[in-house]
Description:
The complex is a heterodimer. By secondary structure, chain A is α/β, with parallel strands linked by helices.
Amino acid sequence: MLLQQQRKRSRIVKMADSGVTDGNEKKGDIERAKNEGKELTKEEKQRLRKEKKQQKKSKEKKDDKAIQESGKETKGDSSAVSAPQPSTQSTAQKVPAPVSVPAPEAPTPAEKPPKSKAELKAERRARQEAERASKQSKKGDPGPQGAVSKSKAATNELQPVKRLPEHIQVDNPDVLKKLAKKLERQQTPGQNSAKKIPLRLDYGYKVSLFSHLHQYSRKAPLTQQLSIPSTVIHPAIVRLGLQYSQGIVAGSNARSIALLHAFKQVIRDYTTPPNEELSRDLVNRLKPYISFLNQCRPLSASMGNAIKYVKKEISNIPSQCKEEEAKRKLLFCIEWYIKEKIILAAKAIAESSIEKISDGDVILIYGCSSLVNHILCEALEKNRKFRVIVVDSRPRLEGREALRRLVQRGISCTYVLISAVSYILPEVSKVFLGAHALLANGYVMSRVGTSQIALVAKAFNVPVLVCCETYKFCERVQTDSFVSNELDDPDDLIVTRNGQTHLEHWQQEPPLGLLNLVYDVTPPDFVDLVITELGMIPCTSVPVVLRVKNVDQ
Amino acid sequence: MRLPPLSYRDSRSSWTKNTGTDTMELQAVLMAAGGGSRMTDLTYNTPKPMLPVGNKPLMWYPLNLLERVGFEEVIVITTKEVQKMMSTDSKMKRDIKMKMEVVCVPEDGDMGTADALRHIQQKIKTDILVVSCDLITDVALHEVVDLFRAHNATLAMLMSKAHEFTETVPGQKGKKRTAEQRDFVGVDESGKRLLFMANEADLEDGLSVRKSIIRKHPRMHIKTGLVDAHLYCLKKAVVDFLTENKSISSIRGELVPYLVRKQFSKTTNSQKVKEDLEDQTQKKNDCSTNHELLISSRDEPLLQLAQERSCWNDHRGDMSEAYHGGKLRCYVHIMEQGLCYRVNTLAAYIEANRQAPKLFEEPPVHPSAIISERCQVGSDSIIGERCQIAEKTSIKRSTIGISSNVKEKVKVTNSIVMHSVTIEEGCNIQGSVICSNAIIGRGADLKYCLVGNGQRIEPEAPCASLWLTQIRVSAVCVRVCVCVFVFFYVCVRACACVCVHYIDGEVREHGQNRTTRNSTAAACSHTHTHTHTRTLLTREHSHAPFVLSFHTTVAKLILSNRFLHTKTCLCGWNTALCHHLFWISTAERTNEVIVGTDQLMEI
């Protein structure tokens, strides 16, 4: 009985691992991919997604904390745990074979020897985990609760360590320590500790609800702590990181393209050290780079997907492949990804969305989405007669750039700030929005303010169309903008007008906090249509697309 | 402002082996071949890079700066002489652990900094960071390099607010420091993009800014009062360009203004377009681009795509894309606070010596120095290795060089004492610079003096006083303004007078030859020397101590020593413009030491 419980726990832990699928934390994924073959991972993920949704619904009504936890993909219910039991049990114990559920094809890796090294490792790990869990539960609450609740408590206690991605647990010093350790670990062993990627300093002050998020100051770039001819990190990556943190490369698409470009440089300059395998060594080489970039600015979902793709391609390279060829292959793959997933996708989206633009339309756009700009320019070339209203908001005022690009093409535009949106909406016939990511529950993550626009548009009965390439689809689930978001430099909110800066010394005012949120999520109720390169779909079909994508890959 | 200890260096070389990457980001180049033409009095015997500042050779500071930020190797461009001294200098050996590749350039050749870069072109594999050897700064170097990185700039440089040197400089008086020509530096609204650069000397009537700049950057801030720190990040393409274009010889004088100008010229912007349009014309372009700068990076189209998709722009107010589509971009980081000195004048040298101790964490008193217990050494003073400080001595705000010997009852305030100097009993030294190997006789009283290398000040000079004189010497047939600094050190036994003369002569075209009125007659009278020059001085100034005759090609100094029983030490030096300096003395009964720039004669 006890053994079973332990197993159960270990399973939970495992699932938690796979649950953490957001862009930053792929370590678990990769390890497991190594251990068990990736088919399983995907299935597990899908299953998990379903569960999560259910739980979300049940939990939404609970208090703040509960919401937060649910956002952090809590799984307290033992019933929910027991659901995927049969399949996971098999994974934890014996052969890592995906049993049942929707996997139609999937060459089962059951041919593997029953006691592989990886498997042994997994077992050992599970045992350790279970022991730790039981210890904690004993210490934590010497339960008056039953066995089930005990296990629940155990899982609950495990959660902060195992489940949440680190980037939303900044307020927990243990997690920070872990992150620092992780950064250290990522370096080649045998290196001096001075050569690890430094931990970027936090800004210091945070608005109370958001203390779990990183907040960096633009004035303290990570390069401050790096040696100057950067030896640890490839120069292209350093440059990219700076461009991210200074906002020179901004926007999901631009960031992904620039990232892939930098990866190309890295791969080109890469030589496999003796006694190493390219597929392994290169992935390890990329890891510190990615955590460096993540500290420059939290990775976007699109970048997460791109990284995932590159890593997969690297690990797919057979060990007997010659280095030159492997590199060529990888470069080609990256080129292909950019072409297929970004450029051609934009083209396809433009084509289908032009159908939605009819003569005489007044189109409202918000901020500066490269995709929406592209669509509008294409529509102009197709001789559609339409007018654009560019809505903008502080502090970035990206709408100005969108305005410039559109006006330069000769599109007639109106420019208003977001505060005037309800005034302008009666004359609007369609709202086109870009997206940072589409989440698995159909929520649209985009520049902060987007949900407001969608809400007002809904109130005025104006159709809201979200344009988004499928590579920005994300398996994460989020129902609010608190749990996982990005905090930009609060100093951006300060304005200097006529030589006067009113908030210059805002840090000295303890009751005052400045919050510069970057994203918000728009519930699917406000979005009428999502235009992707696969066609026009409702928000709620995101999981379907994701599933199809997973199967494709 | 203490800087963090060295930390990046350890086991770095092993890493490069480990990772097998040969991508270097930046190569450091240290320019240490300059002669120090603006402080010849100090560099007469010691080349500028080896001048002691805070008991460390001057070039230690930029090297340390590079090492501190993480460079593991550096190319040092210098002269044979400096190389020899470097190899013997213990500080350099001990403190600088990075790999130094020393490249020697001919000493007397007119090699500019750009020429030097051309000289080492084969060694340059990637973008470079050029530092001058006379830079002492605590700048956070990443600020400059980050500009270079983030904007993919062609040039990124460091500038600093000009410092007012408050200390009294030996041999200088009043507000005569207008010789420096002001720089006008135009930056954009962010204060980072370098748009415009002009020197006062090049302007004939007013500042004219090209229309192409104004059109692209309607708001430009033009700043003055900035000092160029001579620290440049340059793209490799610039070095390639230099090898093609041999007419540029100096980085600061020619290359930087060229690059800044080129940002807005048509050719660089349109060239790329041309190449894109027709591949066939590329060959033709290649021929014609011999003298053009080609800035391009790998995977250009991809980068451009990223830039296109990015919702960022460096400016607003017009319809053009970020950077106005230009590929050549120059950036400048202007230090608002912190230390930044270029040690190229005497005043800067003195100031740097005051500030240098703040830059590094070292005990001000070297452990091997022997200091008697009954002496006062201020915490703001530095005592070098193997110094001997005797009893009842007080040292305040001063630097005492290696192996110097300070005897009893000496008072040293605000002074710089270089290496192996002996200061005998009862001396009082204030605000002075005493070069290496000098011997200060017993009881000398030096105020705001500059004592040359190996000079000896007679003992028993009970009342030494300083004379700062500025004599304007007008000379014939010279169009060019020549500033000649002459420093006389006269020790006259009879009246026991130490006199330092500083003649800031502005040689002008002038009909009459006579010294101007503001020469200090008093100083002269003390020395009781009679001087005479064949061409220049009128009789009314015949009691001036020395007579100088400057000519652009032939400068003559004739000393006719009618004075008796004097012993004259005479140190004179001139700028490079005075090629010939004749010293003729008719003195018979004197021991004169005449020091010229290029010779040392004893009569």
